[in-house]
Amino acid sequence: MAAAQEDPVELPVCPSRAGDGLLPDELRAWMLLLAATGAVEQRLRSVVKKTLDVSHDEFLILCLLAEQPREGLRMSRVAELLGRPKTRLTYQIACLQHAGLVTRKAVCDDKRGIEVALTDKGRGRLQDASAALAETVGEAFAHVIGPEQREALCALVPTLADGTR
Q1: Into how many domains does the chain fold?
Q2: φ, ψ at 24 (rounded to 5°)
């Protein structure tokens, strides 16, 4: 169900693994990974907006909460896991709560702590959209990760090439 592909994204040029550049292999591979994930996020934003009617950052919150027990997570932990400022997170949680996708409640043993959790509506909407979102991610990664990028990432993490951990 992913939207028709736009103009092909030009693959980032893979820096030489021979060490000709200033950066060590690990940083070169990291930069390639960042470029690829940035391209994927660009494609995913419109599908997220269309299927869930939330922002990309709100989508990340929903995904994080979907992988947690039903009781949810403290907002401070959500901010930490997503690397977001707590003030911005408060606004995003309020938007999601207004849409009926999350609940927010005080933590019993800590009057300052706030816990957020997905509602049944949030779980259902995320589940309904998951196939289109997963397809978009898969297609976008397949488009931006070419043989040179794969080779650089496998050199960084050799277990990617042989499937071991």
Answers
A1: 1
A2: -70, 165
